Structure formats: structure tokens, C-alpha cells
Amino acid sequence: MIYYAKQVKLSYDFSRAVPVDNPKFRDYQNFLDKFGNDGNIMVVGVASDKYFTTPVFNAVESLQKRLRKVQYVEDVLCIPQLVNLKKDTIGETFIPEKIFHAPYTSQAALDSDRTVFNSLLFYQTLVYNPKTNAYVMAINLNKEVINSARRSQLVDEIMNELNVFEKETSLSTYTSGLPYIRTVMGDRIKHEMYWFMMGSFLLSAFTLFIFFRSFSAMIMSLAVVAMGVIWCFGTMKLCGYEITLLTALIPPLVVVIGVPNCIYFFNKYHTSYKECNDKNEALINMVGRMGIVTLFCNIAAAVGFAVFAFTQSQLLKEFGVVAGINIMALFIISLLFIPSVLSYLPAPKSKHIKYLENPFLERILLAIEGWALNHSKTIYTVTIAAIIFSVVGIARLKSEGFIVDDMPKSDKIYTDLKWFESNFGGVMPLEIVIDTKKKNGLIRSTKTLQKIDDLSAYIAANSNTARPLSFVEGLKFAKQAYYDGDTTSYSVPYEGDMAFLGTYLKAKKEGTQKTSLNKMMNSFMDSTKRYARISINMKDIGSMKLPLLLKDFEDKAHEIFDTTQYKVTLTGSSVTFVEGSAFIINSLRESIMWAFVLIAICMLFLFRSVKILICSLIPNIVPLIITAGIMGWAGISIKPSTVLVFSVALGIVIDVTIRFLVNYKQELPHLNYDVKLTLIQTIRHTGISIIYTSVVLIAGFFIFCFSRFGGTNSLGWLTSMTLVVGTFTNLLLLPVLIMATDWGKKKKEG
Description:
By secondary structure, the chain is of the alpha+beta class. Helix content is 63%, strand content 8%.
């Protein structure tokens, strides 16, 4: 497993959240087949009124040359390399000419070329914003590399060149674009995963040593979870999976789920040894009593995660498969490893079992016992009040996610993205595909050109989008060049214009034109000239507003384009993100419901009583309701990272319930089916291990609170809070419910 674990790789492909048979996913794949990747552009921005001074402009020229030499950088679009079109009346063609001729030694020469540049409306708001003196450079990256491990090195090399530029010019650069954002976030996920695992190990080791005062118990427990973590990574590789935003959470989860297994085994071993003073008998009691309990606890936890494997989302499937398999693997490892090693070790010393007589915990357990048995009305009142408070909070819950989600507002990724949004309308790709339903449909009539321009103008007027780019913009650029740079000629060509422009626009087999204007225009329509694309950069407005914006654009498109003659499709990474986010959230909700059903079946099989089934589910539902309510009051949105809290918490809190009820069921016959006395014994016997386990779990999840990702941070404190509430509901509310149903008495009477 170590051999395979070392080979697992990191992935950050959010599109896999959407099922392959989803219409939106198919639309996106069709777009990629026709026009290529829409998410391989990294953008660099500069804001300065000194941009067109010779030192800065020459530094920009030098920067783009260095960037072009970086391996896997396919092209760089920047102002010093832009071209103007010159009409060659003899050859009836357009000749591309560089606007600028850097490096400059004369400011006057640069100013003269800048005048020409300012007259070209095609570039305005596309590569510069005249209102804010903001300028942008686009770096086209190899699409295979940006989906591989090599992308981190590629981004680092680009950032090193930008750092050199900043030192040369004393200017700040702003960096964004999906390749950059996903690479940096992916690297942070990987980095955090290692730190969280180390933190979980160290915290678990410290807690275990404090509890048991035994290096052997601590080392054995850590060995169990270490094997579990190795199995996690090995399972990912054997299943052909990669580390994703979701599967990265599994190894730390294995640590905090595996340690309680060890605590319960050691607690039972020490309790039995204290009673019988015989090591072998204590081992037999430990395996006999805790084996079945731990089995059902791990089954319940595994079911809570494994249900994701039955969703249609590939990301959730992978999470469910890996989590389900390895939680059960933890049971096998702990059941075989701990008793075997203990059989070779000497019997525990008095200091190792001293924790069983902790005066502080005994006072806590006596207080819990007193409240559970004598203050049932108070417990019911507090529970009902908490539920009412939570239900009001649940009504305030929103379901919203962002492409750049969970980043601190002060993080450079976030602030740079906002800079691009305020200066250039955003960097998130949205694509509109126009299908004319016939070959050469794009050039048969200028009416189609006008319709595309009308839709582009409508989109450009929206505050959430940048100016769209299509082949029509290229035609407007060509028309302005045909009329010798007259700015009033930058408009959609009429039929009469096309009669003259047609000859100039035909690509020659030789020469430079084929790789300039025609290359640009052909990237916005397919080879049959049936399909055209309108490329839009937009703001990261979130999954609540984005569907409304898309609906608005779609309605306008259907108003402009007759659906009998055209088919308009909205697609791109932004659309698949919304679809993927919504699909994951819905799948998680369904999975949690199925997990409840399957766990209920397991509980019914284990206890063979509908009454005890109801008693067992209520203490687990209440913490989830309270957590959802607090999320609503705290303004935390439902998204893939936060909705996972409910599944994680359910799988773990039910563990406490099962251990309490199994111990209760085992003790009931020995105490002549006296419910009250059995509850007292159960609280005293299992209370210590439940509290110890809860402390370890809460501390383990609290580590996530140090994450720089808001969702992971929320997962940490929300899960910790749910476990705190779950501990109290299982130690206070569960005994009250058992007393109310008199479970056990009737069996005695029978």
C-alpha cells in the first residue's frame, strides 16, 4: 500500500462533479470539441499612468519575451506585440503590422505609436481600460500541462518572471485566470492535507498519552491510524483516483475516526483487567464485548460516507468509495492489530488504568446521571427550545458557492480577482455558441453578424460581464482598416462592405495573413462556418446570481435569434461550475437521507426494537438540526464543503449512540432488567470512554479551523460543535428517552 500510496496524484477538475450524461456537461464537451479549451488563459494586470513611459514599456516588452521562453507557454498577448491591419490594394489583402517597435530610446516615438494604438477601438477595454490606466497581458498555457502535476512548476516559473518585472519597475502586478487560481488552490489543498494529517497525529498522540499514560497504547493507536491513512492513498491509486478537494479530507477523517476505535478497545481492556486482574481474560472480554460494537459503529460511519458512491457525480463517487472502504479497513486493522500486540506486552500497570478513577470525570458523570434521571422536563424543554431556535435559522439558510470559493478576503488570489473584475469585468469564462443549422450559415447574410453584435452589445452593457469577443469584432476591426483607420467605420459590415472585404479576408496559402487576422477569426467559428462562439469574461458572482444572469442572456438570445433558424447554447467553465455545485449539494442531501435510512436498518437489525430505533435516531437528528440552524444564523451558505458536515457528523455521532446502547443492552440482563440501574451503570462505564473519544474527535476536527479555506474552516468548527451537542444528547437526552419508553422492562415482565 505504501508503494501505491506514493504514486497517487493531485487533481482539481471540478467538471467531474457533473455526470457525463448531464445536458450541460454534453454541451460543454461539444464546445471543447469544436473550439478547444476555455480555461487555459492566465492573465497578468498592471495599473499605472507610467505604462507608456519608455522604461516601463520596454520592461513589459522584455517580460513578454522571457515568458515566451518558459516551457509550455504557448503564446503571450500583450500591448507591445499587438498589430494593426494595413490595406494592400495591389494584393487585395490586409498586411498585419506591429503597432509598437520596442525597445524604445525615444519617448516621442512611443507617444506617436500610442496615438495609433488609441485609435483602434478593437483593443479598447479588451487589453486596457482608459478610465483606470489598467493594462492586461494574457498568457496562453498548454492545456495538457495545466491538468497535470507539471502545472505548479509552470506557474512558479511565470511568477518568478513577474517578480523580476516588479523589481525592475517598482510596479505591482495582479494575477488571475482559472489555471492560476486552480493551481494555487490545488497546491494549498495538498499542503494543508499534509499539515492536517501531521496535526491530527500529534494531537491524537498527545491526547492518548494524557489519557492512558502509556507509550505503548499511544504508539499502537498511532500505528492503526497510520496504516489507515496509507490504505487511503493506496486505495485511491488502486481505484485509479486522484486527490481532489473532497478525497483530500479522507486521511484526516481516518485519523479522527480511527483513534476512537483504539480508545474504546483500550478502555474495555483496562476496565476488564481492573475487574479480573487477568490479562488474557481481559483481552477476551475486550474482543468479545467491543468487537461487535466497533463493527456496527464502523458500519454506521462507513454507510454515512459510502452512500456517496451511488451518486452520479464522479467526485462524490470517489469520496464514497475511498471513505467507505477505508473506514471498514480501520475496523479490521484495529481488531487484528491491537489484541495481537497487547498479547505480547506485559499486563497494564496501575498508572495505565488510573484514568478510570478520574475524580473530575466522575463528578461530571454523576452530574450527567443526576440530570438524566431527575430533570427530564428541563432536558425536554431545552431540546425543544433549541430546535425552535434552529428551525428559524434553517429558514435563513442559503445555497451559494463561488468559483473562487472559501478564500479569505485579504488573500492575494481574491484581491487580484476583484481587481480584474473592477477593471476588466472579470476573468471567469462564459461561452455562447450560435448554431446557424447550415453550412456557411455565418457568412450567407450580414443579418447573422448584426444579431451576434446585438447580443454582444446587450451582454457588454451588463455590469457583471466584460466586453464579449467574437469573429464579428474581427470583422469590425477589418472594416476600420479597410477605411484607413477611420474610427467611425468600426461597425458591423453591411452587404456592400462585405463585397469589398470578402476578397481581403480570404486567407492566402502563403504569407503572414493566415496566421494573424484569419487565425483569430477562425478560432471563433468552426471550419464549416456553421457554428460561432461569443467568448465572455465575467465576474465570479456566485451560484445564486449566475443562473439568473444566464437566464437573462438566454432570454435575450432567443429574442434576437429565431429558434427555427438558430440554436443558442450557453456553456463554458462557469456554467459547468454552477451545474456541478448544484448537483453535488443535491446529491449530498439525497445521500444523507439514504444514510439515515441505511443506518436505521442497521440499528433495527442490531437492537430488534422500533422503540430503541426511535430513541437512537432522535439524539442524532437534534445535533444536525442545531448545526443547520446555527449555519443559518451565522450566514454560512450551503455548499459542497459545508453540507459535508452533516454526513461526517452523522457517521461519527451515531458511533456514540451505538456504543451507549450496546453497553446498555449487554448490562440489562445482568441487572435483572432494571432500566434505571442499567442506565446508571451504562453512563458510568461508557461515559468516560465517550467523553475521551469526544475530546479526541473535537480536537481532531478543530484542526480544520486553521484552514485558509472558508469551507474547510467551517467544516472544522461546525463538526466540532455538532460532536459537542451530540455528546450531550447521547449522555442526557438518550437516557431520558429510554426511561420514557421503559425499554427493557417489558422484556423482564415477559
